[in-house]
Amino acid sequence: MLQKFVDYVKLTWDRKLTESTGGNMSIRIDDKIHITPTGFIKHFFSVEDIVITDMNGKQLAGRYRASSEIKMHLKIYKNRSDIESIFHAHPRNALICAINKIKINTHILPEAAFLLNKIAYLPYSQPGTEEFAQGFVNDVKGGCNTFVLENHGVTTCGKSIEAAFARLESLETCAYLSVMQELIDKKPNDIPLE
Prior knowledge:
37% of the residues lie in helices and 19% in strands. The protein is an alpha+beta fold. It has one domain (2-184): L-fuculose-1-phosphate Aldolase, CATH 3.40.225.10. It has an 8-stranded mixed β-sheet with strand order 4-3-2-1-5-8-7-6, with helices on both faces.
């Protein structure tokens, strides 16, 4: 499970879904959070770099400090027992949408319509703060798994590492298409919502 987590974290960087030291990812195993360290380039991430905390954020293991956005991960996990993985990243096209308040059209591809059926758009809040983490709670409790964060990035959640990553990559694909639609100034052909 830990090697799979490492592989998906590296894949996030390799597929340009985040930049440099940006983003943070985690998995929950029993009552422990395994998370990426703060200020770490994801391409070089290994099992030895994983930071382990309890459900209150107390560091239990790891040679580095946990991501500065651990509070967001903890709030989401504490409010949804079904979530086992969280990916927070800064994909380029989704960032364009987040900065310019462009709603990402997910009803143009069947897979995206299924995976991203509900997106919460959260106003800007200082990353790493309690206020930032608290901003997720209502939508998380309402069943939302995908968040676009104004002037910041995106966060996706899932019942597995694969599900959280799939939402992230699918969201970026839809964001790319949304940005291109804005550039060509043409309304897309949406699929029926059934």
